[in-house]
Design brief:
Helix content is 41%, strand content 15%. By secondary structure, the chain is of the alpha/beta class. It has three domains: 42 residues, no CATH class; 169 residues, ANL, N-terminal domain (Rossmann fold), CATH 3.40.50; 90 residues, no CATH class. The strands form four sheets. A seven-stranded mixed beta sheet has the order 11-10-7-5-6-12-13, sandwiched between helices. A two-stranded antiparallel ribbon has the order 1-2.
Length: 379
């Protein structure tokens, strides 16, 4: 029997000692009871967990929608905010409990309480608003492993911006592709990072990515000073994280605590289709409160959005998929958050590079017009 086969046949049982069992949050009897309830009524089981463990602005009435399986929808008519559930709910009950215990590359450990994290996230969220970032905007996060990475993601979620995280070890080309893919307005990065005792630059990769072209959507770069290394600087575009915080210090002392019922939470590239953009958009909720869900155009837009992964285009259905994209662009000029059409452009299909580029660039142009319309409605 080979080593791999022996691992697959693992039958050992590791029993915890009595002291460990005594301090466990869940006993074996509790686990068995929960498992039985889930098997008997899984919708009721998950609905109860969602009600008990999440804070809802608008409580859900629908638990699971299976009408278009396997594209399931859970709690589809509920409203919530991920950052609120992570932070605000703890401020009255356990504000001084550590929310993060971060160990840096040199072994230095930092504890951040829920109260401290809440204050720093609110401050940064106000900073994002100061920079003009709004609900539905995309923000690229290219940071080292740090507390600031959590703050950046939480800050985006708090105001309804969609964050796209790029691993700090990826190249400038990858950063460029993710910016173009998402149509990001802002990049959040650092001067550098420490790995294995070595200083590795990050900001130069962002500069190189933006110089590659196709990044006209970027309006600014926020830079966290992590290593203190020298970086090239564009005074019209770049802003230090600490300088941004100084602009909104009032947020630490009675300032606004921004948060909205967010539509989409994060955007993540599908690496399986690495030779062309393909992304998954994770949702909290779909539309703003002032949208009428019965509006025929909204229904049509929602139907297109929900079915964007239904069909992988081939030579035979390419024309139909193209018409869907064109229809999406038309709908984007009339419903809120028109720039969401980028979500449709990332379907993992296989047109020729020229066909894809032509459709993609046309959609980007139309999205620019749609965004201009959308912004005009916000003034």
């Amino acid at each position: 029997m080979s080593t791999i086969e022996s691992v697959l046949q693992e039958n050992r049982l590791f029993v915890p000692d009595d002291q460990w069992v005594a301090q466990a949050h869940l006993s074996k009897a509790d686990y068995d009871e929960m498992q039985a309830r889930a098997a008997d009524d899984y919708e009721g089981y998950w609905a109860q967990l969602a009600r008990d463990n999440l804070v809802w602005h608008k409580p859900f009435t629908k638990v699971l929608n299976e009408t278009n399986a396997p594209f399931y929808k859970w709690f589809e008519d509920g409203h919530l905010n991920a950052s609120y559930n992570c932070l605000d709910r703890h401020q009255l009950t356990q504000p001084n409990r550590p929310a993060i215990i971060f160990e840096a590359d040199d072994g230095t450990a930092t504890k951040v309480t829920y109260k401290q994290l809440y204050q720093r996230v609110c401050q940064f969220a106000n900073g994002l608003k100061k920079l003009g970032i709004r609900k539905g905007d995309r923000v690229l996060v290219y940071l080292p492993m740090s507390v600031e990475a959590v703050i950046a993601m939480q800050g985006c979620a708090r105001i309804g911006a969609i964050h796209s995280v790029v691993f700090g070890g990826f190249s400038a080309k990858s950063v460029n592709e993710r910016i173009v893919d998402a149509g990001a307005r802002l990049v959040i990065t650092a001067d550098g990072q420490f790995r294995g005792g070595k200083e590795i630059a990050l900001k130069p990769a962002v500069d190189e990515a933006l110089a590659m072209g196709g990044c006209d959507s970027i309006e600014g770069v926020v830079v966290y000073r992590r290593t203190g290394g020298h970086v090239a600087w564009d005074a019209k575009r770049d802003l230090w994280w600490h300088d941004l915080n100084q602009l909104i210090e009032a947020a630490q002392d009675g300032g606004s605590r921004p948060w909205v019922w967010s539509d989409h939470l994060w955007r993540h590239p599908d690496e399986f289709f690495a030779n062309m953009p393909a992304s998954v958009l994770q949702s909290n909720w779909y539309y703003d409160d002032n949208l009428n869900p019965e509006d025929p155009e909204v229904k049509a837009y929602a139907q297109l959005e929900e079915h964007r992964y239904d069909q992988v285009p081939t030579a035979s259905n390419f024309a139909g998929q193209t018409r869907n994209l064109q229809k999406t662009v038309e709908l984007c000029t009339r419903v809120i958050h028109p720039d969401r059409l980028f979500g449709f452009m990332q379907t993992p299909w296989r047109p020729t590079q020229e066909e894809f580029r032509n459709i993609h660039m046309d959609a980007i142009a139309q999205a620019g017009k749609a965004r201009a319309w959308y912004e005009s409605t916000r003034r």
